[in-house]
UniProtKB/TrEMBL annotation:
Transmembrane segments: none annotated. This is UDP-4-amino-4-deoxy-L-arabinose--oxoglutarate aminotransferase. Belongs to the DegT/DnrJ/EryC1 family. The keyword Nuclease does not apply. One of its GO terms (molecular function) is pyridoxal phosphate binding. It comes from Roseibium aggregatum. InterPro entries: DegT/StrS_aminotransferase, PyrdxlP-dep_Trfase, PyrdxlP-dep_Trfase_major, PyrdxlP-dep_Trfase_small. The modification N6-(pyridoxal phosphate)lysine is found at residue 192. It comes from the Bacteria. Its EC number is 2.6.1.87. The active site is at residue 192. Gene3D superfamilies: Aspartate Aminotransferase, domain 1, Type I PLP-dependent aspartate aminotransferase-like (Major domain). The gene is arnB.
Length: 382
């Protein structure tokens, strides 16, 4: 008698799997054969050109991580102990660490439970006379309400920095997410929608030549090598404190091979998001949806269950069935490090982080995989 496979016998579904199109192998082989593996090679130039095309200008600097891009912005602004930087409490710790390393005073702001992102109201509650910058995290491949946030920051004379780690390819009001603040940082980590294995990019949304030169100096490990390369000085020398931030050309080859396929990656990611939304919209959950005017990139499909116990039950059951669901981000103000930073009440973050469930979205996910996940959730919650 033929026995049908049980659910447990089906192959496990990964939460994330990096997309490796066939062109990647050729690009990596080409980079290796060039013998130029450090930054500044042909693939660095080609990848930068595609990111520049996305944001609409050429003030793009490839980095070895999104964290490095944020650290460069902190160094370029010369933030210090007298400066307060407002950061969402619900974010990955690197968002805050990049500025804390410069000695800036980190102030944690609450989020809107409907989006898990800051709002003008949650930011204004933290603005003081010492506030120098606001870091807006665009969560889940969507975008915070940037027009209203910009109005707030302009009124207070505060710089906007965008942590767009998850948002490459997303648009808001027709423009690329990551083009509103003075600086923006993208992530091209293995877990992101477009990947270099490990990498990022800093975007300078200003034609201020001094700031551009400062970023170039920081990328040159704190030297005036860029001026030397342009023939402006006879030798280069140590000019400031910095670090090694640039993306190697080998990683840029990986990035370039994905950027040329970004349209199909975004199409599939958005299609998976739409499939989940249609299948799960009638369940007793709160789906995180993009705000008005935002075309999210589909990086993440997430929802809030009714309570923490339900979330725990879902995640435990999904783990047993190999369905690749996850949650993340204990709010920073609840962390063991919280005593060293400023935070008032962050009720929105406190009431939601333990209820968050994230579903797999990646190029290797099949319709059958998505259907398995949805059927499981319907059985658990329907």
């Amino acid at each position: 008698m033929l026995s049908l496979p049980t659910e447990a016998a089906l192959p496990p579904i990964r939460f994330h799997a990096p997309h490796i199109p066939p062109a990647t192998y050729d690009a990596v082989a080409s980079a290796l054969s060039s013998k130029h593996l450090r930054s500044g090679g042909s693939y660095s130039r080609k990848a930068k050109a595609l990111v520049s095309q996305h944001v609409g200008h050429d003030r793009v600097f490839l980095t070895n991580s999104c964290t490095s891009a944020l650290e460069i912005s902190a160094l370029a602004l010369d933030l210090g102990p007298e400066d307060e930087v407002i950061v969402p409490s619900f974010t990955f710790c690197a968002t805050a660490t990049a500025f804390a390393r410069k000695g800036a005073r980190i102030v944690l702001a609450d989020i809107d439970p409907a989006t898990m992102m800051v709002t003008p109201e949650t930011l204004e509650a933290r603005v003081t006379s010492r506030t120098r910058a606001v870091v807006v995290v665009h969560y889940g491949g969507a975008a915070a309400p940037m027009a209203a946030i910009k109005d707030l920051c302009d009124r207070h004379g505060v710089v906007i920095l965008e942590d767009a780690a998850q948002a490459f390819g997303a648009k808001q009001d027709g423009r690329a997410v990551g083009t509103c603040g003075l600086f923006a940082a993208y992530s091209f980590h293995e877990t992101k929608i477009i990947s270099a294995g490990h990498g990022g990019a800093l975007v300078l949304n200003s034609d201020n030549s001094h700031l551009r030169e400062r970023v170039e100096e920081l990328l040159a490990r704190g030297t005036n090598f860029p001026a030397f390369a342009r023939g402006e000085v006879n030798h280069y020398e140590w000019t400031s404190v910095s670090s090694s931030f640039e993306m190697p050309d080998l990683n840029a080859a990986l990035l370039y091979s994905q950027l040329v396929h970004s349209r199909e990656i975004l199409l599939k990611s958005r299609a998976i998001w739409a499939y989940y939304e249609k299948s799960l919209r009638d369940l007793p959950i709160e789906i995180l949806r993009p705000g008005k005017g935002t075309k999210a990139n589909g990086y993440s499909f997430a929802f809030l269950a009714s309570d923490r116990e339900t979330t725990y039950r879902i995640l435990q059951g999904a783990a047993r069935m190999g369905l690749g669901m996850q949650s993340h981000y204990k709010p920073l103000h609840l962390s063991s490090f919280a005593g060293r930073i400023l935070a008032g009440s962050c009720v929105g973050a406190e009431n939601t982080w333990g209820r968050l469930v994230r579903l797999p979205v990646h190029m290797d996910l099949s319709t059958g995989d998505a259907a398995r996940i949805c059927e499981f959730l319907k059985a658990e919650l329907g």
